[in-house]
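pls design
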């Protein structure tokens, strides 16, 4: 059970909390103002929902205490943001500005490497490694933007958002292995065989 004393509020606002896994509820003066349970909202069995929770706070709750109950979290809360939706978006953006910039640079670099795969006159094995590295950079940068959490506000459905984040993590892992195998072993058949085994072992866990 967590609690937060609210400041003087001049308008309705939100208390934003990022949580991975678990159920969360919030109450003011014993009145439930927010309640989320994974089992009620989950479209995919086994998906650990990693998302921002926007708890609506009425301005009449000014200077009162919000009590937050969290059950079975995978990762505990390390911060909360108080403000309207625009304040929340801007705070998340500012806190992750360097990460977002790095993702954009990595994404562009990956596209350049993939373009060179088609145009640069090098042996096939070298070009294949460059393409795999470029694909890894593109997908990994997108996955990291999911980790930041900004995509949640565009997608809307937090369950679909978390499912997509897990898929992007899986694809990043596959492409990372694909690059390492293609770099170490120049035999394309060996690369394909290794990836086939990986798909068989781990892909069912993503369904």
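designed seq:
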């Amino acid at each position: 059970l967590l609690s937060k004393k609210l400041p003087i509020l001049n308008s309705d606002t939100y208390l934003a909390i990022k949580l991975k896994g678990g159920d969360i509820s919030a109450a003011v003066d014993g009145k439930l103002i927010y309640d989320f349970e994974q089992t009620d909202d989950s479209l995919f069995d086994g998906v650990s929902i990693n998302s921002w929770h926007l708890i609506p706070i009425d301005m009449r709750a000014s200077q009162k205490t919000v009590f937050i109950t969290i059950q079975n979290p995978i990762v505990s809360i390390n911060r909360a943001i108080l403000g309207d939706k625009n304040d929340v978006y801007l705070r998340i953006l500012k806190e992750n500005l360097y990460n977002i910039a790095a993702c954009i640079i990595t994404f562009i670099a990956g596209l350049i490497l993939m373009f060179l795969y088609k145009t640069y006159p090098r042996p096939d094995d070298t070009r294949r490694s460059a393409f795999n590295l470029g694909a890894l950079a593109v997908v990994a940068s997108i996955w990291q933007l999911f980790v930041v959490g900004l995509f949640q506000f565009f997608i809307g459905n937090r369950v679909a958002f978390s499912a997509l984040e897990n898929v992007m993590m899986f694809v990043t892992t596959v492409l990372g292995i694909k690059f390492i195998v293609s770099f170490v072993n120049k035999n394309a058949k060996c690369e394909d065989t290794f990836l086939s085994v990986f798909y068989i072992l781990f892909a069912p866990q993503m369904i």
